Amino acid sequence: MINGHVLSTGNEVLLGDIVDTNSAFLCRQLKSSGITVIKTTAVRDDMAAIVREIQSIASAADICVMTGGLGPTPDDLTAAALAEAAGVKIELDTAALESMKKYFDKRGFDLTPANEKQAMLPKGAKFLENLHGTAPGISMTINKCRFFCMPGVSREMERMFDLKVRPKLYEMTGHAGEIQIIRLMLFGMPESRVGQILSGFGLQFPEIHLGFRVRFPMIEVKLSLLKEVVSDSEEGMDGARQMKQAKLWVMEQLGSIVISDQGLTLAQEVGRLLKKCGQTLSVAESCTGGLVAHLITDVPGASDYFLFSATTYANSAKETILNVSRETLEKNGAVDETTALEMAIGVRTAGGSDWAVSTTGIAGPSGGTEAKPVGTVCIGVAGPSGSNSQRFLLDRGDRERNKQLFAAMSLEMLRRELVKNY
Amino acid sequence: MINGHVLSTGNEVLLGDIVDTNSAFLCRQLKSSGITVIKTTAVRDDMAAIVREIQSIASAADICVMTGGLGPTPDDLTAAALAEAAGVKIELDTAALESMKKYFDKRGFDLTPANEKQAMLPKGAKFLENLHGTAPGISMTINKCRFFCMPGVSREMERMFDLKVRPKLYEMTGHAGEIQIIRLMLFGMPESRVGQILSGFGLQFPEIHLGFRVRFPMIEVKLSLLKEVVSDSEEGMDGARQMKQAKLWVMEQLGSIVISDQGLTLAQEVGRLLKKCGQTLSVAESCTGGLVAHLITDVPGASDYFLFSATTYANSAKETILNVSRETLEKNGAVDETTALEMAIGVRTAGGSDWAVSTTGIAGPSGGTEAKPVGTVCIGVAGPSGSNSQRFLLDRGDRERNKQLFAAMSLEMLRRELVKNY
């Protein structure tokens, strides 16, 4: 295992003025280069703190990618800190200076003395050319750890990583392929239950990592296999086969709550099913207030199957647009299975689609009654071979989460009908 | 100086699957509580690594806020790691268990053995109640460092911080009361420009902290005053007056891009204006696909003014539901100012509302042409005294962000009309 460390420097990170997206980017890149990131840190622009951190990393990691502190101002300390940590001097790197001059000449600027400071590198370090900004990067080995220092500006950093750092990492790791990953999406069970059901996984598949990620109200289960394991093992079972068996085992344990074995969300899976059959969809919403349509239309290409949705908050709109009968509304109220059914049938006709789904309920915080408390939602589905509706009680304590849960449940009811029909 | 440390645990952070926004939030909060964050770290869900990190922090920092690892699954290790680092056992905390039971009962779920594990805390630790999820937090002192452990789910973490952690930090740092805060919401200018325009703030108002938070596509500007300063200063200008002057100065610099001086989002501000006048709204969406209605209905009480929305992806729905003329659609196409105007007028009639807003555009990634590239959006507003529409080019490079930007722009056009009329 090759251990990686990601280090950010900069007061702006520790003041919370910026979100450190660089580290997430670098974690992903290291992983796909075959390196296991064991830790990320961010420290202030403080010489002692940076030196201490570099020394600690140099004794624990094999590779460190570092961002920030390469600029021309006095709080840019990376080169000096590397030198101090390694016990060497800094000196002018003529190649780095040449590269900066070229960059400035091209833009008609003059180098300032402050810029020249940026070409002062620790003795023994190599400069990494920056084609998209002024600050040269630095590559240097301290103890057994190879450091790659890049600018903190994301755009410059990402391009320097791609052009200058990644090829060197590939050389070092002998890396030729990606890690195998399988993603399953679940809906309809709390994370704790899922964890309990899958608690035997580690014993069965010791070489595969099992991870959970809540994407409320769905849960993503991720199986991942490190590159090394992919070669044939003694029993002749290779990584791909292990992964396939692990996936089947997980799906067997979880049963019908697995909505996709491709990591698709409910809206993506519904879209995939509709596209496959060349059929279309309309939506009638009350309590979800446009969220079902929003989720559906977040999927690129949704215009292939999504025709129309009506958010009918007012009862008058339920009557005029969706043709819900006044009698139903007066007798049963807006939040009711029959109303949901008529909404689905009505919007299917209004939209001229093959399928329709409807929601009507009480998202809260107010509006609940004893008979229909906050969290009550009625969902209707209408399709080519009939229609049905159902009532649920799904309160998650606040309006936004209730809307999310109601919307997901309506997509799930629709998904089940779509699966049944094909 | 009180030294703070922010620690995240979770493989998903080190695999780069998620961007660690929790740390940025916590850095900001610690700072505004009078604590200097000296370092942030993220480590894997690995017992030895977490224990080592906790011990290192316990000998260097005064306060550590930690996120993740409180769930019910086997890779949730925080309680066990704290216990090991402190050299104590874990034991059942009956208060934590009671609190979880209450949370589950309210939702009609049963506690599983896996959940009971969540109530096992290190001896000597105190539990922090979680009112917005199942995982109890943990507060514990190791060496001289006080640890506050919160869930990794941002929503739960932020609320637990506000309710349970911040008051304790105030006690420890001597922040005896609330900090004065003013929030301004901006729309229509990039963060870098806003920062540049307000760069003189620090000189003018040295005692007030100026912070930015991107809530795409809006920017929240926060002015905050530390408690100590609020007492009368020598010149007799108290904190409240300073804050008022600072607010006026900022609003003067920024002009019309300030959409609310109460920190309200566009949807909240539009709702406030409609409610104030007792008027109603309908929405016609194409490219925003339900998002405008979703944003409007996320505001509690939206049913007071929001009547109806139609998401008309198909042209046939634009004709039949919104009464857009076939001639307009054939001559000008769906993405067009006249179409947007007819959509707004049509949905105002269909919904029977005082106001209406419409969107039609190309969110991408495909569907653009030379004349109408991805990012083109036409927005219409219809009201009691007339209607108008406008075309914009607002490409942010991906479908989801384009939808967000289009929706915000439509609410902004509506907001301006509402303001004009009163």
Summarize the helices and strands and which ones pair or pack.
Two copies of one chain form a homodimer.
Chain A: E1 3-9, H1 11-14, H2 21-32, E2 36-43, H3 47-58, E3 63-67, H4 78-86, E4 90-92, H5 94-107, H6 113-117, E5 120-122, E6 126-128, E7 137-142, E8 145-150, H7 154-173, E9 180-187, H8 191-197, H9 201-204, E10 208-215, E11 218-225, H10 239-254, E12 258-260, H11 266-277, E13 281-285, H12 291-297, E14 306-312, H13 315-320, H14 326-332, H15 337-351, E15 355-361, E16 376-383, E17 386-393, H16 399-421
Parallel strand pairs in A: 1-2, 1-3, 3-8, 13-14, 13-15
Antiparallel strand pairs in A: 4-5, 6-7, 7-8, 9-11, 9-12, 10-11, 15-16, 16-17
By CATH's scheme, which homologous superfamily of the largest domain in chain A applies? Answer: MoaB/Mog-like domain
Backbone structural class of chain A: alpha/beta
For the largest interface, the chains and their residue counts are: A-B, 90 and 90 residues
Rg of chain A, Å, rounded: 29 Å
Number of helices of chain A: 16
Query: What is the fold named in CATH at topology level of the largest domain in chain A?
Result: Molybdenum Cofactor Biosythetic Enzyme, Chain A
Q: Which term fits the overall shape of chain A?
A: elongated
CATH architecture of the largest domain in chain A: 3-Layer(aba) Sandwich
Poorly predicted regions of chain A are 228-236
| Oligomerization | homodimer
Strand order of the largest sheet of chain A: 2-1-3-8-7-6
DSSP, total strands of chain A: 17
Which bin fits the share of residues in helices of chain A? 40-55%
Determine the mean pLDDT of chain A.
91
The total tally of domains of chain A equals: 3
N-C termini distance of chain A? 46 Å
CATH class of the largest domain in chain A: Alpha Beta
Strand content of chain A: 15-25%
